[in-house]
Amino acid sequence: MKKNIVNLGIQIVPKSKSIDSYELVDKAIEVIKNSGIPYVVTPFETVMEGEQDELMKIARNAQEAVFKAGAEEVLVYYRIQIRNNEDVFISDKIEKYK
C-alpha cells in the first residue's frame, strides 16, 4: 500500500496549576517546527502534512514535550484527512486565501 501524504490536525490542551497554558502549547509547537515537516498554526490547532505514521510520532513527541515542561494533564484531539490513493496538501486548501 502506498503511503499517502495526509493532513493531521492536533489540538493539545495542557492543564497546569502553575504554568501558563500558552507556554506549554509553545513547547508542542516547537517539536512540530523542529521536525521539518510542513505545518500551519491556527488559533485552535496545528495542522501538519506528511505520512500518517510520521505525523503520529511527531504528535506523540509534542505531547511528551508538554508533560516534560510541567503539565499535570494533557487533552489531545486529532483530526486526520486521508484520501484513497491520493495525497492531501495543506496548500490546496488554503492557498487561495493568501
From TrEMBL:
UniProt family annotation: Belongs to the UPF0045 family.
Source species of the chain: Belliella calami
Any one Pfam family match given in the protein's UniProt record, by short name: Thiamine_BP
Name of the protein described by the UniProt record: Thiamine-binding protein
Thiamine-binding protein domain location: 10-98
